[in-house]
Model the fold of this input.
Amino acid sequence: MPLREIAGPAGRLEALLDEPVAAGTIDANGRVAGGFANGLRAAVVFAHPHTEYGGTMHTKVVYQAAKALSRIGCAVLRFNFRGAGASAGTFTDGPGEMDDFRAALEFMRRQYPGAKVWAAGMSFGSWIALTVGAADPGVTTMIGIAPPISRYDFEPVAQSATPKFLIQGERDELCPLKDVQAFYARAAEPKELVVIDAADHLFDGKVSEVADAVEDLLGDWS
Done:
């Protein structure tokens, strides 16, 4: 897949765009796509984990979840936050990365006018994606994988009526399951939570189960 660049508020952002996979197509992993038959399911922006701990758009869970979304008919933009990979700028631990995410959403809106827009992310990226998504009335679905509930303020997300789909590892050492369960209990409907048995924060050995969960949760979602 060719690299591309999008315009960000601190300079160019390195990005990859996964186009939706047609129904019945078999992908490189041997999976059969549910895909799209009558148009694009959604335009999705997917944010990666914390830059200073090695998170990029190539993080395994981000890659596999993006592929899963493309198999159910979504176009998915993965991009590197400022200061990650070849993206311009320096890491800001939140404010700048939210601006980057907003720029990525606008890129997808221009790329796919009229399409539904979803916001997704993993770990730190889930805080960015869901916080921006909760404040954006044009975002119709939010997907958070291993959300760091105890480390960042997710209260605007909890109060949001935008549908929330969460995927969490049972043995996440950085974002404990009990914190996610407490957040989920108080979060506004509609919402869904999937717990991956025996999975740690990076879902080592369980990445394919994350992809399966994405397809199961969102394959029929409209």
